[in-house]
Specification:
The protein has 617 residues and is of the alpha/beta class. It contains 17 helices and 21 strands. It catalyses: guanosine(37) in tRNA + S-adenosyl-L-methionine = N(1)-methylguanosine(37) in tRNA + S-adenosyl-L-homocysteine + H(+).
Amino acid sequence: MVSKLSLFRANSLPFPVFSSYSALFIHKPYPKPKTLIFCVFSNNLSSTTVPYGPSLLKGKKPLVDDLRLTSIGRDRDAHRGKIGDLEESIEKGGLLNEDEFTRVFEISAIRVPAKDCFALENRLRGHLLNWPRIRNIARVPGDEIEEDVVKLLGRETEDEEEDSIVDSVDRRIRGKAEGDGERLSSVLHRDKLARTFNSTGYLKFRNLAKISRPKRKRKTEKATERKEKENGSRRNEMAVVEVVEDGGGAEDFEGLLGEGYGSRGRWRGSTRLLLLDEKYSGEQVQDLPEAIKVLFAEAKMTDVSLSFELVKCRVTLFYDYWPMIEILEAVLPKGMIVPSAFEMVGHIAHLNLRDEHLPYKRLIAKVVLDKNQPKIQTVVNKIDPIHNDFRTMQLEVLAGNHSLVTLVVENGLRFHVDLARVYWNSKLGTERQRLLLGFDQNDVVCDVFAGVGPIALAAARIVKRVYANDLNPHAVEFMEQNSVVNKLEKRIEIFNMDGRRFIKAMFSSEKGRKVTQVVMNLPKDAAESLDAFRGVYNDRQRDEGLSFPTIHVYGFSKAPDPEFDFHERIRIALSEVAVDVKMRKVRLVAPGKWMLCASFILPKSVAFSRKNLSYVD
């Protein structure tokens, strides 16, 4: 019996072999010969896989003397230990050095003639660079030179070839024979004069035929454009592609063409760069895939071999390229949850930062503002939960301008909102739209807690009439303004009073007889306000043809069974057990806290209830 021992060499393993690794011997019950396999396993591999594409951890930092910190990955611990210095720099306005996020990547590229780049791009699909927001075709700086300059270089462009005899004859037939050195025939000569002179015998100058000329730019506009061009440095660019060339044997055209054209080598004509995938970085032509080798073989058989070559390129990615999440992961301490989501209210980004984020709040706000401009112009953070009756939030402006008055567009309507004085929640936009789908043109809607009117004004475009109310006088003021802006002021009637008092006043009047839908979107207190419906029709006869509206009430619940808990609260408020309620979860507001919507028809027993009500007007 022969046993074979198969072992891995230690230097061939992708990880070092230590005593902490567990060894497992597997003896296969096969017939002769038997094989003994030695397997090595590890539960604590330190190597981390870097995903495809650019990353702050993969790229190299440029050699710039004024950089104050070393790479993000190596000095993360030192950066974490300077929270106090970070806060001090934040207060002084020095939030973040954007040069710290500049990264350089070495890749390979194929330099091809400009006229062939798109055709070659289709042939090399799958082998070209596939980075987000980076084109795999790049221009070569200095290649685009005017024809007059090309003549000075002593070489004409490739497109200018000598015409054949057939082409020369064809040009003489069509009256374009001046270049051949032969005189035009009398017929062609008269035709040329007819095109050159007008009826009065004067030459036609195309510049004089222009009736309207472009306006001359003022000196201030020219100075502004020149300044913007000078200041339009890398900050306005996400990436820059440069060709890494050796200076040996190259001709210096800087004295002839100006700065930026030195040591460019022999003029090749207009060319483009086809950026190859990052896995081909540093490879030679013989190591590339066959699809690329075929292109080089074809180029040698044609005249384009001079402008068809494999070059090394340097791709520089600046701060504007990196997404918000990657920047925050780099600057925040390791292990901290990165705030990746925020609510947008017009031009305002509304953050809900945790306590661990507060030392870095202005740094986070700076990144959020930079990565979402110009859509976002102000970044705020909610300081305290909502405790007041007006549902206004205590907000702290962290970055951008300090204006909290903004314009929100929802469901095709425009709403002016001041977050310092009124309440607005953009996350409920989908829920509001779902609620509106249940209304029709025969409905009359009563919105008890309307706010600035997102539901009331949207419903006014659909239903017959809307009665909207809110306790906050500032919200009522904005709702009246929004109704005029959206040209709906004739279809809505606005009130400013307590919710319970509004319900009693509406259903005790003739207006309440036509109400078919009641919306109570105040999750904190709406369920308890349902007691206002008890006995709303006590002063009316049962046979008067009264309407019993459908009530949509919202509320919060932290119970293990939130739907049952909210249903019980509705029953208690109405003092009615037999209430057919359609319950639906809207969204999870916080861990263990649900927002729900309950819809039911007002029971007759509740509307004609004789129980005494104990609420204060």
